[in-house]
Structure of Copper amine oxidase:
Amino acid sequence: MKVKRPLSSLLALVLLLTVWVSAALGAEAKSPAPETYVSFGDSLTIGFEPGMTLESVPYGFVDRLYEQALMRGRVQLTNYGIGGMTSTGLNKFIQAVADEKPVKASDLQPSFADPRADQVVSNTKQIKADIAAATLITITIGGNDFGKEIITEVDTMSDEQLAAFTDNWMKTYTENLNATLQNIFAINKNVRVYVADQYSPAPQLYKNYDKLQKLKDLFSATLGQVAQKFQKDGFQATAVSVADSFVGSEGTYTHISQKDIHPNQDGYQVIAEQFAKAIWGEYRKDMKPTEPITVVVGGHTVNTPHLPALLQDSTFVPLREYSEALGAVVSWDDTTRTTTVRYKGNAVALDIGSTTISVNGVPQTITTAAPYSYESAGETKTYVPLRLMAEGLGFDVQYVPQSRTAYINP
């Protein structure tokens, strides 16, 4: 089953948005190629934090990367993360996908902490199609191979026992990751794949901190060797170093104080930053958040003192400022008392107070509030509900409820 995120019931409430292409892009600017992003892995890929339930909406590194991609153009995200996934389980999962063989979660590994596991792996034919269409894949895997118990088990291990453990783990991890990547590239030889290493969650005050750091370093080195092998064969496999960012900040970036090894929001932010730098060369932080919602068009927030407004749980924006600033043409027909917005052959016409708009000559009903006059920054402005217009003018609208941001791309 496809697990698409970020989606929530808030989408229907908050996202009646309209916007037009940014003037910064230029009226004839060529839109970037759409990104198709597929993520695989364990609970880090889900964005899990302690206390979450099936109703929780995570905001992990995948969701943040999704936003980073939306700043650069259209993108579709499909998240196949499963809590408790090991490298062996992922290997079997991707093998079943390559073979289009139906599987259950129990076919992949003995048990999963994630109750969604059977649903996530159920449609291997669709997952294969998603890999074939993907332009970008991220993977987090390996932490569950040795589990959180390693933090306490290392206390009883001699140096020789730890060396034997790591040798066995590296062999298993290497074999599984090699097989996983081989199957992915067999399905899609041109996809860019980014695989994260594994941070150590133990804080510096832990007596065996140095031993766990050595294990972390071996993990990173092993992953790097696997990635280099595929690069030499002409495939786009990249090792993403997130582990070093946690060194010395384990207590700041994880829930270890609650005896949980998962990242907190600061930790997921750091992971997203490292992935983004590997993928795009930078992690963008130049947005200017606005209340009650941020609207990003073509990668830029709209520069106007007339901010979006909420009415009946729907978002409205000032018509003329947004349309003209973003490259559309606005005209007023005094006879019919109708405002029309045009962009590249598409036209949306509306009247203040009317619950119907015209999209390319076809009437459509506004299911929430109608366009209305509103006092903003000392001026009377016409505010309009935006999603119908955005779609009518040919734009893609995606809303991320966790950051209360709408991304509009031509």
User: Anything to note?
Assistant: The chain has two domains: 23-280, 303-394. The first helix runs from residue 10 to 14. Residues 338 and 393 are 17 Å apart (CA to CA). The chain has 16 helices and 18 strands.
